[in-house]
Amino acid sequence: MESIVLTGRPNVGKSSLYNALLGYRRAIVLDMPGTTMDLVREKLEWAPAMVIDSQGIFDEGDTQTLQEIIKAASIFLFVVDAQVGVTPFDRWLAREVHIAKKPTLLVINKCDGHGRSYEEEFSELGFSESLEVSAAHRRGITDLKSWCRRQLGVPEFSEEIIEASEDNEEEKAPIKLALIGRPNSGKSTLMNKLCRQRVSRVSPIAHTTRDPVSFEIESSKGKIRIVDTAGIRRPRSLKESVEQFSIHASTRTLKEADVVFLLINCSEAITDQDMRLLSLIEREKKPTVVLLNFWDRLSGTERRHFVENSDFANYLKNFKTIPVSGKTGWNIDRLMSQVYKLHEQSTKRVKTSDLNRFVKDVVSKNPPPAAGNGNFNILYASQVKKSPPTFVFFMNRKGNLPESYQRYLENQIKSRLGFKSQPVRIYFRAGER
What we know:
By secondary structure, this protein is α/β, with parallel strands linked by helices. It has 14 helices and 17 strands.
């Protein structure tokens, strides 16, 4: 797929422009250089292309990052700041973009709209086409989209755009896989291993990933869109604006995910934040695999203790767990099959006839306990929703079944109806046939 890449020095408004092109807020926008640290990419609705918000190039020695940006681009939107004017950094970066010989539009951002033109001032950068915009106020965005469509060979007002959009809708949507964990649990390293290329920045410095970084891979079983989220922890103060936005974006990604990989750094002590993430996953009822990362750092005795005897072991019993090493790639080849398996489980619907045969069998083997002046009896059940699988059990009278019996039914559903690694929801209502 073609890619529209926004490039420019830090703090010229690339992320604001990125959000304006998408039509919704996707990248974190702050008046602070270096907020975007990775290539953030999304599909566009108005053109058959991907738009990529590149991280700011911080100095002229940052050639590796620049080459990655150039390689990813089909066309460039070179963004500059009208209020600052041309800087030596702009000149150097413009020379590098010219060498790439790819279609480029000079986007002069932060134009105040008071009649002043900035095109002559920036003409020394050598770009034949330019456009004055204000991303923050959404001025000039329509003309910017038109330029992109022309470069992509998409007619401006044509049924082909609508047909392409309809074709995209008919395609099977990719499975959304979210990588979550506390800072420095190894999410970005795992992301790069799964994608077989560097798509997420890896650093020992906590909170290097800020915006969710996504990448799509494809196999014979279908597409998977992997999203590397920011490390989720409780900000130490309200002043940590970047981290607050990152946590909000990561939580939203979790809610939208089809499958979740929770990374645990098992070479360190389990923290309250690990437990909060487990609770959040349980509340959202997301099919989840807990990845025990840095497993290669543990001795055999430490591994057995972690899985069997540690305080955390009790919580692991509710999840599928796989020990891995994101750094070496050990056990990584097992993970994609788990994504397809869990997604299939989460979208499974049990036939009503099969479900009620199941109800009759489990109730006959272990009837509901008596309470008050009469006995409970489950008459029938129905699956009312997928993702997460949700079941309603209809009883002969009002009242609450003991929690132990509710857990019994939930465990029977998981083990006998094919939802072993999938959280399910169950509800009870009084009713008659």
